[in-house]
Amino acid sequence: xxxxxxxxxxxxxxxxxxxxxxxxxxxxFKHEQIExxxxxxxxxxxxxxxxxTLAKRGDLHARRQALAYIKDKAVTxxxxxxxxxxxxxxQGGYLRIIKKGTRKGDGAPISIVQLLPPExxxxxxxxxxxxxxxxxxxxxKPKKEQKDQKVKKEEKKAANKKNDKSSDVASKDAxxxxxxxxxxxxxxxxxGA
Length: 193
What we know:
- The chain is mainly alpha-helical.
- It is built from 7 helices and 3 strands.
- The mean pLDDT is about 85.
C-alpha cells in the first residue's frame, strides 16, 4: 500500500527529480513557457505556484527561499520585481497547461506549460455576467404578467404578418393592372400610329 507517498517519481531518484524540477521551474520563469511531458507539467505546477506565492509575499525571507530553489539569480530577481505584479489580485492558478499531442519518437503525451499573461490574469479575476434590462424587468414581474406580454407579442406578430400579406397581394394586383394597362396602351399606340 502506498500510504503517505505524495508526488510522482517520474522514473528518477529523489536528487535527480529535485534537480530536474528546479531546472524546469527556472526555465519556466525565464522564458514564461516550456514544453514537456504531461506528467512533468503536472509535477511542476505546485512548485512554480509556490514560487509565485513567495514572490507575492516579497519579504527578504521569501526572496531567500526562492533563491535557494531557483537556479538563476537573475530569474529570481525578475520574478520578484516584474512577474509578481501580474498576480497580486489572483488567488492561485498562475499557470496554464495546454495538451499539445504526442511526441514523434516515443509517443509520450506532450504539454505546454505557460505563465498566464497579464491581460488574462486581470480579466479572469472578476467573473461577472452582465444582464440586459429586458431580462431584469422580466425577472422582477410575476409569471402571469410575463405570459400576458408573450401573448401580446404573438398577437402583434400575427397582425403584422396579415398586414404584410394583404399589402403583398395589393401590390401584386397593382403590378398586374399596370402590366395590363401598359400592354393596352402599347397596342393603342401601335394601332393609332
